[in-house]
Amino acid sequence: MSMEDHKLKVFCTVAETRSFSKASEIIHLTQPAVSLQIQALEEIFETKLFDRSSNTVMLTPAGEILYKYSKEILNLYASAERAIGGLTGLVKGSITVGASTTIGNYLLPAVIAEFRKQHPKIKIHLLVGNTKRIVELLKGGVIDLGLVEGETSRYKLTMEKLIADELTLIVSGRHSWAKFAEVSVLDLMKVPFVFREEGSGTRQVIESYFDKGGISVQNMNISSILGSNEAIKEAVENGIGVSILSRWAVRKELRYGALKAIRFKEFEMRRDFSLLFNRNSISTYSVDTFLSFLKNFPYNKLLEG
Questions:
Q1: Cα angle value 60/157/72 (rounded, 5°)
Q2: Which of 121, 192, 227, 235 is 20 to 30 A from 73, comparing alpha carbons?
Q3: Could you report the per-residue pLDDT of 100-124, keeping only the tens digit for each?
Q4: Mind listing the pLDDT tens digit for each residue in 13-30?
Q5: DSSP label at 104?
Q6: Whole-number average pLDDT of the chain
Q7: How many helices (H) and strands (E) does the chain have?
Q8: Domains of the chain, with CATH numbers?
Q9: Phi, psi of 100 (to 5 degrees)
């Protein structure tokens, strides 16, 4: 990408977020740097592109025109790169992927390592955040694709299921339940339980299953509420309570016996890991190659291995 393309990308991000501060956060540039890029474009066209008089940053009529053409120009670059890549078979470039916590921390690193063995010329940047953050990055055009867990239909993005994820009850290897293969979901009322914080995708799934099983969170013995999977695993290993996490988050601990996974008699707890795309953007040849790798990857081998 040349300097001009970069300016156009910055310009589009400000136009889409309607905020210099949000755009600077998304593009990882300082706010003055974002302003300078916009200023440089305004000097080229000798006109204002944004109206900054109100609280929100609005495009001027000239800005509206440039925005329309900028999207077309950036998409044309992507199409050219894709067509040439298809012809030469050479896959290079860089891909920026955004992933929500469980996927970004436990699933993607191993997948990316395998992909890089086959395509050493492609650089992959991975940004990890909650689903809401990944959606923001995708809408701002900062990431090429997102991988998220949970419900995203309200965000007006294209979504495609990648794999199902199983959530499992985990107990310490020394817990009295460790010898059981399965327990009733109602047994959870009898033991201290370690929960994720409100707003976590994992917690939302658990609560909807609890409703099905006739369990009210208010009546449970919640020993602690923690903000990360790592903290929950430590708490469960140290006997503070039992918990429910994605199999991906506990695969190492299960392998070494530090934690034990137990099934529920009533149901399996499942959710989907999904791919998210921006409807308006054209993907590059390298993104297409990575996507096809993601869709054909033997994920079960990783879980069993």
A1: 45
A2: 121
A3: 888 999 999 999 999 999 988 888 9
A4: 899 888 888 888 877 788
A5: I
A6: 87
A7: 12, 12
A8: 1-82 (1.10.10.10), 164-270 (3.40.190.10)
A9: -75, 165
